[in-house]
Amino acid sequence: MNDIATQQGRTCSQVALNWVIQKGAIPIPGAKNAQQSQDNAGALGWDLTDVEMAQLDRASRSFV
Q1: How many domains does the chain have?
Q2: Which of 37, 43, 49, 62 is deepest in the core (most CB within 10 A)?
Q3: pLDDT category, 19, cuts 50, 70, 90?
């Protein structure tokens, strides 16, 4: 995830939220301050590539 975040110029949390959105789910991220809300909003308006989605899909299976 770190590599994808770096390549996309995003944070890991933005990548994770975007991945969930692209999977068709609606995440409900928490935010304790304005900075966290802004970070969460950075997950919107862009898409992970098909290759990145596949990489994250494979990585997620290792946690199940």
Answers
A1: 1
A2: 43
A3: very high
Checking if the pLDDT of 62 tops 90, the result is: no
pLDDT at 38: 96
Letter for the amino acid at 51? V
Is residue 15 a contact partner of residue 25, using CB atoms and an 8 Å limit? no
Give the Cα separation of 35 and 19 in Å (integer).
21
pTM of the model: 0.92
Helices (H) and strands (E) in the chain, counts: 4, 0
Which residue range(s) make up the domain with 12?
2-61
- Pairwise CA distance, residues 59 & 48, whole Å: 15
